[in-house]
Amino acid sequence: MTRCHHDLDATIAQLRDVVEDRLEKHLASSAVFFADKLVTMSGGALGDVFLHAKALYLGTHYRRAFATLHRGGLIPRKLNPVVENGSLQSRTVDPRAPAESSCRLLAAQCLAAVKDWNGCLAVLGERDDGDSKPLIEETVTCGEQNPSLPGCLTSARSGFVRQRKKATRVEQLDRTQGHGSRIRECELRDGSVSIRASLCFMRGKAHGALENWKSAELWCKEALTLDPYCFEAFDLLISSHLLSVGEEDRFLSSLQTRLEDKWVPSLYSTICHSGFFSSAEGSSCVASSHGHMNQATNVRCNLPAESDRDVCNACDLSNIPDARQSQTSGTQPELFALKYNSEVILARSERYFNRGDYQRCYDTIQELLANEPTKLAAIPCYLAVTVELRLKTKLYLCAHKLVEEYPAKAISWFAVACYYYCMRQFDSARRYFRKATILEAAFVPAWLGFGHAFAAQDESDQAMAAYRTATRLYPGCHLSLMCIGMEYHRTNNLSLAGQFLSRARHLRPADPLVYNELGALAFHNGDHVSAISHLEKAISLVPQPVTAKWEAILVNLAHSNRKLNNFDEAIFWYEQALSLAPRNASTYTALGFTHQLKGNFQSRMEKAIECYHRALSLKPNDDFAQEMLTLALIDQCAVTMPPYNFVAYDAHQPLPVKS
Question: Under 8 Å CB-to-CB from 652, ≥6 apart: which residues?
Fold first, then answer.
């Protein structure tokens, strides 16, 4: 009997090795099969039940994995009232029993995979009652509880997570000495902090799915504070636009890391400041430009491009010195090693896009995708720049390849919609934008593109409905608010337009396009002084070197100065705009009109006539330029024609004879 018992123990030990080996080799079906037999042989040992649940999770059997944890007694009794009757009884005390925090994490991940977000929060132990107090206390090491998990959250004003009032001496020492303390370093090395960070991230993810954005922000920040290597929490913060640019900078600078981990916040800062595209699946919207210049007297309103973040102060890893210089200059060697990393190259491409340097952006992102064609995070930036450059063939090939390889992903049909949008087939574009939102309801770029396609055909109500959905899904993104303000502006609802543009400015105070739209709104309200103030602020925020993307701001500033009879200033800004976009007929028309006004229709006609001729050479059907050219020629003739003596003619009188 003893020998049989020994043989069974040996078989159980062998089965554990087999299951772990299959899991390591990603053979999920084999792992599930033998883990099930292992649980039966061991009499439901807790460690084996957990191993079985892990195999089921990796095999995408999420509900069965949660049921296994539930039935095996690994979920706390207060969340599992039938555990006494339904759990398996262990034959012996299992020294391999997992920590409670690990079981909760796996159970929460199972529920999150099936989108049971309320159940996920219940397993994690958070009461969503406005003063969120976790019910659990995560373990620092196996079998040892640590009460240092934040007990409740502060209000939105403070933006930090409060610790419990009662703290152990170790916790107080950890707070005063920071992450560099001996205890903190030990926790970071053995990986136990990552479990706590993962639990916090899961709470943030669940709150984000339930659109409780403030709690999602606080839990993600807590996860990064516990473990700076928790990239999932950082990605959720950035991709969902939960923080403003200033808040991102302050939070990343406040992260306390060990000396050898200082490169992590630097890399995060690069990704933050690169642009709008930062999530795993990518985030983008279709670049567009709608609006017009009406007879050289109205202000142009340009729809913003995809990513308009504050890139002036971005951490640019493209200027990292070589290895020898990095040692002498104090540059972290990790940053040098990451100089040609795909994430850094993508951040550089997005920064080029934000500056309006579309050709350099395209060249960089094209090289990245040539080396790593399956990097979906780079696809939105690629789609955006190809739309800007109107590379229709490239768009078609990219969309065709994505649909062939990833037919169930929203990004694939979003690429198809971008192609039709570039072809100006807006009905087809809307159909595929809609399909992308059906596949992934929270895919905000598709909602923004959906709104752009409606706005391109002057369907303001449908466009604003799409923009409002994007605002609800990404409350920290200013683009949808700015688009709503522009639609209200276009429909002459100037009061509501001002409200939404002010909200966009509050979220993104360093975006030049927000101030451009505020200047255009002030112009149409007749407040030309405020228009000049907003537009000059926009120009001061434009990244250097200035590209043709920002030409509309210069033209609008020239219009505003012309309205105040500041003709010299207006002429200066028109000429600056023409240096960026020399083939813009409407700018030539406005410049000629300004020359006429400055000369009071009596002088400077030569320059006005020259500008009108250039405008008509670029746009022959410009009625305003044709009419003003006719007036300029008449005035020029009236001024330059030499005087002559008038002689009355009488048919009955003989003609005078010359002497």
Answer: none
Q: What is the pLDDT of residue 261?
A: 81
Whole-number Å distance between alpha carbons of 583 and 366: 28
DSSP letters, 14-57, are HHHHHHHHHHHTT-HHHHHHHHHHHHHHTTS-HHHHHHHHHHHH
> In this structure, what token pair is assigned to residue 153?
């959250």
pLDDT digits (tens, 9 = 90+) for 232-270: 999 898 888 888 777 888 888 888 888 878 888 888 887
Q: What is the pLDDT of residue 125?
A: 77
Distance in angstroms (rounded) separating the CA atoms of residues 468 and 491: 17
Cα 651–Cα 657–Cα 659 angle in degrees, nearest 5: 160
The answer to whether 105 and 149 are in contact (CB under 8 A) is: no
Residue (of 288, 274, 200, 202) closest to 239 by Cα position? 274
Q: How far apart are CA 68 and CA 425, in angstroms?
A: 52
Residue corresponding to tokens 């994430």:
343
Is the separation of the CB atoms in 430 and 413 below 8 Å?
no
| 138/142 Cα distance (integer angstroms) | 10
Single out the residue of 336, 287, 328, 289 nearest to residue 308, CA to CA.
287
Assigned token pair, 324: 């020898």
What is the distance between the alpha carbons of residues 618 and 402, in angstroms, rounded to a whole number? 39
Give the pLDDT of residue 273. Answer: 63
463 token code pair: 């466009």
Q: Is 332 helix (H, G, I), strand (E, B) or coil?
A: coil
CB contact at 8 A, 160 and 154:
yes
pLDDT of residue 193: 55
* Beta strand 152-153 pairing with 139-141: unpaired
Tokens linked to 428: 């087809």
pLDDT at 427: 93
Residue 454, C-beta contacts closer than 8 angstroms, at least 6 positions apart = 426, 430, 460, 462, 463, 466
Q: Report the distance separating Cα 452 and Cα 439, nearest Å.
A: 19
Could you tell me if 69 and 119 are in contact, meaning their C-beta atoms sit under 8 angstroms apart?
A: no
pTM: 0.75
H or E, element range at 622: none
pLDDT digits (tens, 9 = 90+) for 417-442: 999 999 999 999 999 999 999 998 88
Q: Where are the alpha helices (DSSP H) in 62-158?
A: 62-71, 83-86, 100-113, 117-124
Q: Which residues of the chain, if any, have pLDDT below 50?
A: 80-92, 127-192, 275-330
Query: 126: which strand partners?
Result: 134
Q: Let me know if 277 is exposed, middle or buried by CB neighbors in 10 A (0-12, 13-18, 19+).
A: buried
Distance from C-alpha of 344 to C-alpha of 318, rounded to nearest angstrom: 8
